[in-house]
Amino acid sequence: MKRLLRLMMLAAGSRSRQFLAALRSSIIGSVAQAAAYGVLIGLIHELAQPQIDAPAAWTWFAVFVALYAVEALCRLAELRFPYEDWARVMSDLRLGLGEKLRAMPLRELEKRTAGDLSAVVGGNVAYASMGASQVAFLFVQAVIVPLLLVLVLLAVDWRIGLVLVATLPAALPFIRGIQRRAGTGLRATNSADGAAASRIVEYVQGLPVLRAAGQVGASSRRLDDALKQQTHVMSESQKSLTLPSIIATTAMQIAIVVAVAVGAALVLDAQLSAPLLAALVVAAVKLAEPLANATAMIAVFELSEASLERIESVMNSETIQVGDPHARLDRYDIAFDDVTFRYHPDDPEPVLGSLSFTLPARSLTALVGPSGSGKTTISKLITRYADPDRGSVRIGGHDLRDLAPTEIYRHVAVVFQDVYLFDDTIRANIAMARPDASDAEVEAAARAANVHEFVSRLPNGYDTRVGEIGGALSGGERQRVSIARAILKDAPIVLLDEPTAALDSESEVAVQQAIDALVQEKTVLVIAHRLSTVTGADQILVIDHGRVSERGTHDELLTADGRYAAMWSAQTGARQWKVAAAQT
Which residue among 198, 255, 353, 538 is least packed, with the fewest CB closer than 10 Å? Predict the structure, then answer.
């Protein structure tokens, strides 16, 4: 009961006061119900007498009615929680998870798959709140009513009471076994459900690739394996519960049969009246009924507990710590001071090692270097994806650890190579950067980003839906929409992560023009794949193995004849490559 109360209070959250009020009503109602059966036995005993004492019988009846009235009122009060507060409990749990996800470092968030988080926020929240709204009250009833009825039966006839006290506990080890097996099985099922949900999301999002590879339907091994594992885990969980449930139910039925046999012997021996035996049997059946229901409720209870544990695992995750919540940015230079960073503590080599450089305000800095050198990690640290293992990242002289994430994001606009658009209209996707922007401001940003050109050709214009992840638009169009979003935000710091790397020449020109409109008078950091796009940068940093190996302007780096010059030579030489037709 203590464990149940702790878990249900956790699920109830801000509604814990209402939950406790409903729980008190459930306890009082359960006591009234058990007492009513005791009074009913007294009434039947009185009515079975040769000389009925009418006032005494009516007194028993009045008390019986009063107790049932108390129980009815308590049940009505108890039902207020599941019917009025259940939806609020689910909403509060989901809002709490949302707040936690927003406060979680992106590095921590990336450890969790979309399918797993979807299962937690969706199904696990529903199961947890179901426990708080229904299971708790049924469980209280299943414990209190039998305990009090045992006392009543012992008081009325100690012999029948003793039979029940001696035989019913035989079911308890099996009920406990059901609890253990249900807990283990449901935790495994939850894990399998999360894995299957992740594979389903992966399957849907990767369907074009899977089709091209001939891995759809039954040929999709990853999805098929996850679904088979889910089915296997669920089947094994149910099998493990079958035998203990049958034994526990049988033990309760045997207890009632033995009690009836003892009572019948007492009636035959004239030590007990038949009406009183009937009343005792009714009470015995009522005693066993909640215990039988408990075997079914245990599985639901364990499901709620397993769901709460998964919710707790998210709620107990690391959160971003803010040194000075009132700190505000008024300068927009960026500095890395002796920064060392690992994605995982046990990585043998850091991704960034003793990295130091400065991005002056209102300047354009380009990061170039081979794949895996740490360029994207640098841009992530500027948005406080995670904190450095050593050193500091500062904006306007403020260590990012002192700034609230909202303050950082308010002043930083990011344009990624892989654009994510929401399944909404083009207007809504652009306005996401500034929801209070007028239609005229949205259109102005779209014109600056070369979005208006292709939007004007669409049947619904800016009200055209872009599809899931922007699938209805081409890569260049998605990129321009994301740049329009950044233009509308008008943040003083702009991060560009290879925004033109995957575009064709025509799209690249349009996107480059949009970028030119975006970066005016901003502090800009661009990660460049094509060196020709950053020849006019104020400074170019060559990143190699997490360190700055060279820095300077385009001309200075060519004159130095180092790594940058070699990269430039390789890219300009590649423009002369030709693909020859095969000789037949």
Answer: 538
| DSSP state string for 126-169 | HHHHHIIIIIHHHHHHHHHHHHHHHHHHHHH-HHHHHHHHHHGG
Matching fold, domains 2-315 and 334-573: no
The residue ranges of DSSP E strands in 362-460, in sequence order, are: 364-368, 390-395, 398-399, 412-415
Give CA–CA dist 457/282, Å, rounded.
79
Domain 2-315 has CATH 1.20.1560.10: yes
Q: Which stretch of DSSP H or E encloses residue 557?
A: helix 554-560
Domain 334-573 has CATH 3.40.50.300: yes
Low-confidence winner among 97-106, 341-350, 441-450 (lowest mean pLDDT): 97-106
Across all residues in the chain, what is the average pLDDT? 77
Domain spans in the chain, listed from the N-terminal domain onward:
2-315, 334-573
Tokens (6 digits) for 536: 């006019």
DSSP 79-94: HHIIIIIHHHHHHHHH
Band of the pLDDT at 336, cuts 50, 70, 90?
very high
b/e code 490-517 from CB counts within 10 Å (16+ = b):
ebbbbbbbbbbeebeeebbebbeebbee
Q: What is the per-residue pLDDT across 513-559, written as a single tens digit (0 to 9) for each?
A: 777 777 778 898 988 877 877 888 899 999 998 899 999 999 999 99
Task: Give the end-to-end CA distance of the chain in Å, rounded to a whole number.
Answer: 83
Bridge pairing between strands 390-395 and 398-399 = antiparallel
d(C-alpha 474, C-alpha 509), whole Å: 15
Average pLDDT for residues 369-387, to the nearest whole number?
87
pTM of the predicted model, to two decimals? Answer: 0.64
Query: What is the model's pLDDT at position 584?
Result: 46
Tokens of 329: 């940015």
